Amino acid sequence: MTRIPEPRLSPVAILDLRPTQMSVGLLEVQRKRAQWKTLPKQGEERYLGRHMVPVVMGPSNRPYLIDHHHLALALHEEGIEHVLTVVQGDLSHLPRKLFWTVMERYCWAHPFDAEGTRQPPSAMPKSLLDLADDPHRSLAGEVRRRGGYAKSVQPFAEFLWADHFRQRMTRKLIRRDFQQAVATATEHARHDDARYLPGWCGIEHG
Question: Distance between CA 111 and CA 118 in Å, rounded?
Fold first, then answer.
């Protein structure tokens, strides 16, 4: 298997991309849709060229999306049918069960549902359209953007933060008053009991 990124210059249909996670934050998707709408028409092609999505080739030679699920879904909802991809690895020769095992070992898959509960690989959605909404993931993304914690290269870092907030805040609170939820979550993010999380930038108390 090669892990050298290989740009695919031929477009890939967004709906042909297989997810490697089970949920997204729909508010995150809406934010990316809003960003797309601000682009001048002549800037759209340039934007797509700068935002190639990373994939791993899996069973039946299908492309599995290993990042940018929110972006791909937002582009689809804005009427974009194709994206350019960067192939991060080729596991197309592996049987399905071993494929998912290897994907997890490389941190290329996150088999946890919108409640943070681990699920079997068979439960992984077959399409981006089947991804569930996780309000805590939307919350985690907004807290990061507002400086509650730093951006991290750790795969699925925002989902780790989402799980942290999930133990402290209800979906009802997030949906009733998102801005207040962000403020409360930011306080939680700075607390030293979050210091195990990627990008934590609070103050540790001895």
Answer: 6
| Total-model pTM | 0.91
CB 179 within 8 A of CB 167: no
Q: What angle do CA 146, 149, 155 make, to 5 degrees?
A: 115
Please answer whether residues 24 and 73 qualify as being in contact, where contact means their C-beta atoms are separated by less than 8 angstroms. yes
The angle formed by the CA atoms of residues 56, 113 and 173, to the nearest 5 degrees, is: 130
Strand ranges inside the chain, DSSP E: 6-13, 23-24, 53-57, 63-65, 82-90, 132-133
Helices and strands per DSSP (H, E), number in the chain: 8, 6
Give residue 47's identity as a one-letter amino acid code: Y
Over residues 33-65, the pLDDT tens digits come to: 999 999 998 899 899 999 999 999 999 999 999
Task: Report the C-alpha dihedral over residues 67, 65, 26, 135, rounded to 10 degrees.
Answer: -70
In sequence order, the β-bridge partners of residue 89 are: 56
- Taking a C-beta distance cutoff of 8 angstroms, is the pair 66, 56 a contact? yes
From first CA to last CA, the distance across the chain in angstroms is 46
Asked if residue 5 lies in contact with residue 54, where contact means CB atoms within 8 angstroms, the answer is: yes
pLDDT tens figures, 107-166: 999 999 999 999 999 999 999 999 999 999 999 999 999 999 999 999 999 999 999 999
